Amino acid sequence: MKLRIKKADQDDIDKIIIVSSAILLTLSFFAPVVLIQFVQEILHFSYDHWLFTAPRRAFHTVMGAMILLPALAAAYFIVRHMLYKKNSSFKAGGIFLAAALLSLPMVLVGLNHYYYFDNTGLHYNSLSSINETVYSWDDISAIEPVSINNGGRLTFQYIFIFKTGDEVIIEGTDEFLRYREKIYERVKDNGGDILERREISG
C-alpha cells in the first residue's frame, strides 16, 4: 500500500515538473520583457529620468534563468531513466534541486541591471553589482561612438569613458538616440569630449 502511494505521489510530482517546465520554456521567450519592465517601473520610476533602460543582458539573464529550469528537469528525467534501466536507485534529486535554486539569483541580478540619465549624470547598475554607481556629468572624460558591422547587420554602441578609468557601454537603442544630442551637449558643457566614430567589423 505504501509503495502504491509513493508511486502515485512520484507520478504527480513528475507531472507537475513536466507541466511547469513546459510553461517556463514557453514564457521564457517573452516574459522577461514584461517582468523586467514591470518590476523596474515599480522600483525605479521617476519623472526626473530622461530615459531609463534595461540593457539586453538583463533580458538574456532572466531568460537564461527561466530556460535553466526546464533544462535541469530534462537532465533529471534522463539521469533517473538511465539509473532505472541499470536497476540503480536515484538519490541525486537534491543536487538538481540545489542547481535549480541558482535560477533565483540569476533573475534578481537581471531585474537589477539598468541604467538611466538625469540632470545629475549617468546612473548604472551592472550585473555584477547590487549597488547603483552614479557618474556625474563632469566625471565623463569622453564618449566614443562605435559602429559594429556583423555580417551586414549594423549595430551601434556608445562607450562612456570616465576620469576614474571606468568604462560603461551603452547600446544605441532608439530611446538612447532620441536623447543622444542632449547627452552630448551636457558632456561637452562639463569638459568632456565626443570622439570620432570607430568602426568594427564583426
UniProtKB/TrEMBL annotation:
Claim: Transmembrane helix is one of the keywords in the record: yes
Transmembrane segments: 16-38, 58-79, 91-116
Lineage: superkingdom: Bacteria
Keywords attached to this entry: Membrane, Transmembrane, Transmembrane helix
Protein name: PH domain-containing protein
Organism: Salipaludibacillus aurantiacus
